[in-house]
Every structure is written in structure tokens, then in C-alpha cells.
Queue: 4 jobs
Job 1
Amino acid sequence: MPNSEIELAALVGSRICHDLISPIGAVNNGLELLSMAGDGSTAEMELIDESVCSASARIRFFRVAFGVAGNQTIGVSEAKGILDDYHQTTRWDVIWTLAEAQQRPDIRMCFLALLCMETGMPYGGTVTVRSSGSKWVLTGQAEKLNIDAELWSVLATGQSAIKLRPSQVQFGLLPIIAREAGKQVTSQILENEITLSF
């Protein structure tokens, strides 16, 4: 049995992502075959291909963020590849400054933190990811922020005075997972900048 409700939720996340990635991969393979055969409108094929690539990128990102962390490491090229694919059609850019492979649990917390940053930067922006020893620091810069103070307070306390919506689940998960790892999530919000560390 899982050791905690969080671990059980992570198993559910992993199962969903695992089961969805195969049919999406099959659709992508089908598109490649149609492309080689010369069937279908180019515009239609491009639209379907873009949607399939976006869905695949999201599943890969969510599998790390919401799935079981385990004790594996994730290499620099894999982490950057997931982020580049995930943000390809979004308004956000992520600058990954880490030069070495990282433990999957740390990258899981980083990906959850990125989802928090996106919530506070709904109009787009740039997030720089750094680490110093065991401490991770994400700095987001945007022309305009949209900060819900009650929502952001959840990161520091792990307790929510408001009912979280599905799109806000990362705010509930990150402090719990960080606490289990012996870390504390802190955030600082300025006029055009968010700093989130753990």
C-alpha cells in the first residue's frame, strides 16, 4: 500500500499519464503514415500534428509533476526537452540554468512550482530556474502579474482558507511534497517579479 494519500494520488497521476501516452503516440504514428502516403490536407494535418504534440508534451510534463517521483534522476537534456515541448505553444519561457542531472523528486517540485508561477503570470513571462546545493530558486519576470494573496499563502502554510480549483491543485501539493522532503516553500512577490524557492 502507498505510504500516504499524496503517494496514492501520485500513483493515479502516473497511471493516467501512462495510459494516455500510448494512444497519443499511435495517433502521431498514424499522422506520419498519412504524411508519407500524401493523404489529407496539409493545413488539417498540421493542425492535428500540433494538437498531438501539445497533448504529448503536457502528459510528459504532468507525469513528472503529478506522478510518482521515485529515486531516479532526470538529465539536463530530458528536463529541458520536456519544458521546451510543454512551453512551445505557450506565453512562457523557462531558462534552465542547471548543468547536471537532478533527482526526480526535486524536478517534481520544480515543475509544480512552475505551474504556480504560470498562475501568477497569466499573460506570459520568463522563469529562470537555478539551484544552489539543495536549494532551488525560480524567478519569474513578467510585464503584468495577477496574484491571489489567499492562494499564494497556501504555499507557506500548506493550509488553504479557500477551496482550491482543479487548476490550482499545484498550490496544495507543492508545500506537502516539500515538507515530506524536509523543505519549506517560500515566495516573494514584487511588482513585476515572483521568486519561489524550496
Note: The chain has six helices and seven strands.
Job 2
Amino acid sequence: MSLTDTAVKNVKPGDKTARLFDGGGLYLEVAPAGGKWWRLKYRYDGKEKRLSLGVYPDVSLKDARQRRSDARKLLADGVDPSENRKAVKAAKTERGANSFEVIAREWFAKNSATWSENHGSRIIRRLERDIFPWIGGRPIAEIKAQELLATLRRVEERGAVETAHRAHQNCGQVFRYAIATGRAERDPSPDLKGALPPVKQSHHAAITDPKAVGDLLRAMDGYQGAFVTKCALRLAPLVFVRPGELRRAEWTEIDFDKAEWNIPAARMKMREPHLVPLSTQAVEILRELHALTGDGRYVFPGARSNGRPMSDNAVLAALRRMGFAKDEMSGHGFRAMARTILDEVLGVRPDFIEHQLAHAVRDPNGRAYNRTAHLAERRKMMQLWADYLDKLKVGAEVIPLCA
């Protein structure tokens, strides 16, 4: 006789394990402790075997009968249900091990040691926020271009077009890593070329008019905020490095005898060491600051802890406090200021300027210049620039000079 829902629900445990049969090999096993398991008894290759179909009441009588039917179909096709279950479980485990998130984190771990801390943090945060929630659990070999595009569209739709493009680039790097390690056959990211709207080019706000530069320099000299921030403000136009490179400067990198600042590759955008010749004005600022922060690691330590560099917002906030608007001047603006005036007003050779900006500059034979290329000329340029800024600061007539 077949079982009923009422009989299954009301059966009480006894002193020994009891079995209630439903037919077709399906039965309910009731343990003395009260547990109820669905089992299927079947024969395969002449041997009697048993297959667990779940626990009651999580698996109802109806569900157990459906599982019995599925197992019987496998047997009819010559497949052992027990072995099939093992194979499915192994496949799921393998799929999980080869998911996009697992491989992306492996790729990140292998590459992040060569990146700056901030760069690495931005990449993993971007993946965790915008990619993993949607395709992180998917087997990487099964992800198609349309699925990747749908994920990137979520980023685009919140107005973060540049972030969408960067996420697209990172996903491509992960797919190529999966191909190299034998866990995917192709990278679908190139199929999305042109699918995302282009990023609107925006330039960092910068003051490049010499007269206005003089006003800015005088305002910075009169800055009433923290002394460390004031020194960073005064040094920024003299060295025109990127804001992150400036605020993370360490005293071990400063050579007062040679008047040089040697920035290691790990902190540079181009991952190449960079040498900044220091003008006499820059050395004077650094010596003055050394008396205050020279015992610590950072030239510009944070306001709350000497063990960390100043906030990446410190210089920007100081500019705003002095009345320079967001669309007027930025931390990056000191680089554009130097590039424009050195070229258009002072007539310095563009390759000297670009090299000092730590841009990718190559010689006529296509070889990348090293950190000491044209060092003598760059020393002269940096001193020329510092002297010119002094003239602007005192309001002297702006007269083009020769490099």
C-alpha cells in the first residue's frame, strides 16, 4: 500500500529503526530518535544499492516520489543514480573553484604586490562592489559578453561611466588570466568594444596665467592653517609631482647633499623610479620642515598620526579654504601650471618637461629615458622655474626667459 501524507506525518518512532514502503523502492526510514529519511532501494549491475533522497519534512512525500522518478529515469538510461550524484557534486565543486570571483581574487593576489596600495585598493573595491555581486559566483568559462555587459550597465546607469570602463578593463585582465591558467577558453570583454558610452574627458583645474599664479603663490605664503600643510602647498609648485606622490614623501628619499628627491617605483604611476632635482627654494622648505617632522617616516605626516601620511584631501581643502574654487585650481593643477608656463613662457624643451612630469618619454630610437636622462638640463630647468615663481610672487613683470 502506498504511503499518505497523514501516515508519514503521524508515524511515531519505536525501539528499532522502522521502514515504511511507498512502492518502486521508495521508503521512509524512521529512527528511534525520531529522524525520518527518504531512501530508494534499487539494483544496478546486479547489486542492491540505496540512495538517500532527503529528510522529512524538508522533503515532502510528493518531492520524494519525484526524486524516485528521476532516479528511475537514470536507471532506465543505464546510469547509476548514486554515481550520477557524485559526479554532479564534483562538477559543482569544480564550477565553484573556477568562479569569476575565485579567479579574480587569485589574479589580484598575484599582481597586487607590484601595485601601489591605493591602486590595488581601488581595483579590489571596484570588483567587490560592482562585479562580484552579479557574476562573481558564475563559472568564468560560462560568462558571455551579454552577461558582462549587463553587469557593466549597472555601473553606467548610476552615472559612473569612467568606473564602468575601468571595471571592463579589470574584467578583461581576469579573463585573460583564466585563459593563461587553463580555466577559460576566451575573453568576452573585447566583444563589448563601443558598447559603453565614451568617457567625457575632463582636465584637472589649473591656474596657468602667470599673473594669477603670482596671486596663488602669495595666498599660499599667507596660509594660516597647519604648518605641515603650508609646507606641502609651498613645495607643490616647485616639484610638480602628482598629489599622492607628494603627500607620501618619506625623509629617506630626500638627499639634501645632492639636492634630490628619489621616489621609488612602487609609488609612481608608471611603476618606474623617479628623480626630482630640488631647487634651492625647495631645499629650504624641506630643511625648515625637517626640524618638525624629520624624526618620523613621512615628510608630511597626518594630523592625527605620525605613522601615516597626510590626507589626500589636505592640500585640496587648503586651496578651497584660501578661496580657490573647484573649477579654478586642483592638487593636480600644479603639474599643468608647470607644463604650460615652462613650455609657452620660458621656452624649455618639451621632452625635458615631460620627463620631469614622469610621463612616458622615449628617445629618437624608441628607448625609454631612464631616471637620470638629461639630469643636468633638468636641474637647470627646476632652478629656473623656482626663480621664475619667486618673481611672480613678488609681482615682478612677467618676462619670458630662455632655458
Note: The radius of gyration is 34 Å.
Job 3
Amino acid sequence: MSRRKALVTGSAGFIGFHLSKLLLAEGFTVHGFDGMTDYYDVSLKQRRHQMLLQDAHFSATEGMLEDAELFDRVADDFEPDVIVHLAAQAGVRYSLENPRAYIDSNVVGTFNVMEAARRHAVDHLLMASTSSVYGANDDMPFCETEKADTQLTIYAATKKANESMAHSYAHLWNLPTTMFRFFTVYGPWGRPDMALFKFTKGIIEGTPIDIYNNGDMYRDFTYVEDLVRGIRLLIDAAPERPDSPEDIEEGDSLSPAAPYRVVNVGNSDKVRLLDFVEAIEDALGKKAVRNYMEMQKGDVPATWADASLLHRLTGYRPATDFRDGVNSFVDWYLDYFNLK
């Protein structure tokens, strides 16, 4: 049997690296596409790609998604069966400083990915969204079927725009499309701009760590290997356009007008931020110097996923305890920076 071919954007990123590694292990041929932007340490991205390139079934192109001609050429040469679009300008807080980067990457770049998926009539287009699209919603746990029209940052707004764009393409071109909404993802090879990385670094160095809303924050922390397992299983759960709205089961976000669905991928549990900090302290055997701060603009006090639809579609539930996940990250961090 020929190997299925997956084109993964953002393959040198935190999630894209882990997903590519899993797909290779499961017999896919993977082509990665990554801009290697300097939003954070490029050497970390390069190390991830170097590891993937040890597998003969992985190849990669460095380029920006806004370059439609380049991305089209890559898609034409590779002829993917599946596209998993993870590349994006990430970061809620950075979107306050440089909002234009989010329009260029997340809107224009995503349009180019959708065009390639349409031209190649891929079996399934899967694209990353975010829990941030729930914005000011306060009815938790967040469910895919509830309205999400109150985004609080340009980052979240671009991701909601991606969902709307994808729905229109699914409808117009009968393109099976799944949008997955990530919650707070963490784990080995994580991003330096995210809390776990910054907290670990600060505790080791004895510098203060910033804790927003005076610690009264809750997050649905999702271990990265759980997340990519969920994505892998969703690849095989391509949505089909229903014959009528009555065919859609209660709680299913399947569109009545397109082969399109939104799926939460989260741990289905909210963890207090201070408990997360204590888990890092326990893993390092050292206390943090805590700098309590007010809520930052655009942030929300809590996120919490209802991931029952993911389980219904795949039979899978992310279940890694945050303490175990933190220990795995700290082990990786100490090894990566030669601190053991």
C-alpha cells in the first residue's frame, strides 16, 4: 500500500513538530512548510526540523504562507492527500503589539492554504483554531455549538475569520474541513513565549515570574502529545455534508450546509494557575519569586473545554495529568539547556 501524504504547515513549530513526528511513526509521508520566523528563537525551530529530517519520509520547504506562488508549487509537487494547517502568527499578547502580522499570516496565509486544498481536492483539510475564539463567553465548559462572536484580541479575531473562511470553502467546493480549537497546550519542545517555558526559566534563574490577575486564573492545560493524538484521529473523521439538518446529532457542530465541523481538543478540566506554578516548583525543587499582576488586556480569567465531541468522533479523550506533563517538560528543559 502507498503511504498517505500529509502536508503540514508550521512543521518546525511546537505542535507541528510533534504532529509530524506522530504522522511519520504512523506511516505517513510528510512534507513540512515553515517560515522559520524570528518571533522566538529560530534555533529551536531548526532543531525540531533537523530531528524530523532524520526520517527519510519527511521533507520540508522554508517559506512564508503569504507567498502563494511558492506554496502552490510545493502543493503541486507533493500532491497531498491531507493538509493540516498549523502555521500562524501565534500569541495573544504579541497581537497587541504587532496586529498586522496576524492579518498577513493568519488571514492571507490561510487563504492560500485553502486555495491549494481546493485545487487538489484533498481528502480532508484540518486547520488550527483556538479557544481564544470563545472570547467573552463565560458559560463553561466551552462547547462547539455555542455562539462565539465576542473575540477580545486580533489574534482571536483572525482565527474566527479562518473558521468562517473555511466554512465557505467547504460549502462552495464540497471540501471536507475540520477546525480544531486548541486550549492551553504545553509540553517538551514548547514555545519560549508561553507560560510554562517562562516560568521554568525564571524559577531556575531566580528571577520573578509574572502571574496575571493575581493568580486567579484557570486554564484547560492540554499536553501536546494528547493534542496531536487527537488531531491524528480526526484526520480519519472527515465530516460529510448532511442530507438534512435533522440528521445532525445533538451536540455535533457539523454544519447543515457543508462538510464542515469545529472540534474542541482539550483536557476537559480547568486547572488553577497557582497549582500549575506549584507543579513546576515541585519538579524543579525550587520556589518561584512571584510577581502578582493585574489581568492583562485581552486576557480571560478561565478556559475550560467540553471535549465530548472529540470523544464521540474518535473514541479518544486527552487525559495526561498536568503534574505529569510538567515533569516531562522540565526533564526536557534541563536536558536541552544542559542543566542536569
Note: The mean pLDDT is 95.
Job 4
Amino acid sequence: MIDITKRDSLKLMGLSSCAVGLLPVAGCTQSPARTPDYVAEDEALWQQADDIIAHIALTDFPERDFPVTDFGGRGDGDTDNTQPIADAIAACAAAGGGRVVIPAGTFNTGPIHLKSNVNLHVSEDAILSFYTDPDRYRPYVLTRWEGVELMGFSPLIYAYGQENIAITGTGVLEGNGTNTVWWPWKGRWSRAQWPVDPVVNQVNTRTPLFDMAEAGVPVEERVFETNYLRPPFIQPYNCKRVLIEGVTIRNSPHWLLNPVLSEDVIVRGVQCISHGPNSDGCDPESCNRVLIENCLFDTGDDCIALKSGRNADGRRLATPIQNIVIQDCQMRAGHGGVVIGSEISGGARNIFARRCYMSSPSLDRAIRMKTNSVRGGLIENVAIRDMVIGEVRDVFVINFYYEEGDKGDFLPEVRNLHVSNMVVENARRVFELRGFERAPITGVSLHDVTIKRAESLGVLENVGEMDLVSVSLNGEPLTL
């Protein structure tokens, strides 16, 4: 039996009142079982995902190795290897490319800047351990922080305008974020284990940065001598042909993998393990043709979040996140498994996710879209299939009231979200779908979805259209 709280029932009295059988609403139906037409349409849809993968331009490196130990590097856990690594990268690039090899050992380093045709290879039993002194991450570089451009701290591994670059191997990238370094800059956080400092706090940089972006201040003038914006771990910016494969990434200051305005990106076999604030696993922003596969995400924020810029800055660049395939990944702890937003002002389109397994008592949401009328953004052509979800709080979330809520003039829009062949073992709520009365959520279809146990149907608010085919909840057909 479907159990909905009184508060939720009152919310459902609008366009989505069909969710509790109160009023008939056009577009909210349980369709007949799948037909050959449904099957053909589904296969045609997923052919698009295969085509995206086929069109990703691949990296290719000469078979030349440049061990950092040949340039004075030492893996003794004490030596500063920043300059030896930089020298090895420069020599590799000058020779036409190859591998810069980090052998077994613990190699301390400051920021690493990759160059074209260089593969940074972190060998088995190697730990590339990054210093936590912020001054080491100067001089500032062009970067993007929560969807807004500025001149800020260098990411731990950074590349700007490079082509044919890689980070490979089975070693460890250690960011050394802890409750005493990097993470306390977050300030208030639900899991904060630090006293909140009113001065050493990201709000003192974040708020003026966002104000600058809204005022149209040129990016080169968005410079803060006193800066509390934590850098991301890996950020290829405006790059082409990028491979990140095999490594384990731990304890990032901020987001772990953050390709920005890049094309032909492959993230494969990477383990993202970081439980600090804003420890998103993989956040491609305004990228085109991205494959994320065979990865593990165990994070303090969203596992995978697809983004395209925040507010005026996202609209200034007007570059969507598009042609993305996520497959064969495992999601554990996190705010969301497969997420679109919240910095989504440039839009998102042609997003595919398949054959993933998600489960954790600390996984808040499986499929999540978050935006508002300040950020706006058109999200269209999103397909999810062959998903197994063990334990999760909410299964489907589309929230137009994220953070600022309905306080702007840029209406968010979701078109063509198609979910098929999903099994959910245990959830608290099936839905949190919250559209605006002036901009309802439409175009959601669920085919062959089995939710074995859920405590509540959840919230459906201003949902104008849903198509259900073979959907069951708690052992009974779900009829809206």
C-alpha cells in the first residue's frame, strides 16, 4: 500500500494529484506492457550512446618513458618533487610526448601542470602526495569554481588548452584534505568536525565572486588576494583528448575530477574516495563527448554531477554539457548517484547512463536533477537503463527549488527523461519531483521499473506529464 504523509498529499493537489488517485490528470498514466514498438524505440535511443563512444577521439602517446627519478625526484616521503616532476613533463613534451613515470614510493609535490602529449603515469605502489600549503598553488590560473570563472588557486593537477593528455596507472593520488586542512574553509557543513571560523571561510570569497560574475566583471579582474576557495583535484580546462584511467583519488580539497570546456574525455577504472565537503567524484562542466566507465565513487557529495556553469557566467559561455555516457560504475556514499546540476545554466543534452550499481545507507538520491529559476537551463534527452539500486533514500529527484528556488526569470526545463529496466531494493521515497506551477515538469517516462520496497511515494508537485509502463511499487502495479 502506498503511504503518503498529509503534507505531501496536500502538495499533490495540483497538476500531479494523479499520484495519489485524487483527480484524473492527462499525461499521468500506466501504459500497457511493452510492445515491439517500445523495444525498437529503446534500441534506437541507446544506439545514440554507442555512437557517442565511437566518436570520442582517443589519446595516443609515443613509447618513451621519463621517470621523475631521472630528474632528481625521490619517493622517500620527504623530498619536494614539484620541480623534478615539472622538469620531467617539460622534457617529455619537448621530445614529442610519452610517459612521465612516478615509480613506487611516496612522492611529495605541489601543483602539477600537464602539457600536450604527456601521460602522467602513477605506478603501482606509488603515492603522489600533494602539499596542503595554499601558497604553493600560486600563481593563480584561470579556473572555474562552482560554475564561475576566476583567477584562482591552481588545481592540484591542471592543464589549460592542452591536447592528448593523460593520467594513468594504478597508484594513488593523495590530496591530504582533512578536518584540519582544506576542508575547514567550507565553514558550516552538516558533518563539520571543526569550529567555524568567521574569517577563514569560503563565504568571504564565494559571495563576492558570484556578485562579480552577475555584474559582468571581466574574468581577469576576478582576483582575490585573500582567497578561501578550495581548488579541485584534477581540472583539464579547455583541453582535447583527455584520459584519466586506473588511479585512486583520495581526500580532495574540493571536487575530485573536473574537466571544464573540454572535448573527448575518458574517465575509466578510477576510484574516487573522499568524504570531505563538496567531494564530488566526477563533475564534467560544459564538456562534449565524455565517457565515464568502470569507476567507483564513495564520496561526501554527488558521485557524478554534470554541469554547465552558474547563472550569468554559465549563460555568458553558453556551452552545454552534452553527449555523455556513464556505464558500469559503482556508487556508494554520496548526495546523488547520477546527477545533473546544480550549476546548469548552459544546459544539458544527450546524457546516457547504464549498467550501474548504487547502494549505501549514506546514498541520498539515485537519479537527481537540481536547478532553479535563477540558474535555469534546458535539460533534455536523458536516458537511464539497466540500473540496480540496493539502498537509497530517494530514487528519482527533479527539484526546481534547489537553493535560491523560484526567485529568477530563467525557467528551468526538463524534456525527455527516459528510465528503463531499473530494480530498487529499498528506498524511503520513490519521488521528489518539484516543478513550478508556471513551469511544470514534463516528459518523464518510466518503463520496466521495479521498486521492491519504499516507505513512501514521496512528493510530486507540478508534474504535468508522466508515462509509466510496467512499473511496480511494493509488489503492486503503480497507477498514478
Note: The longest helix spans residues 36-54.
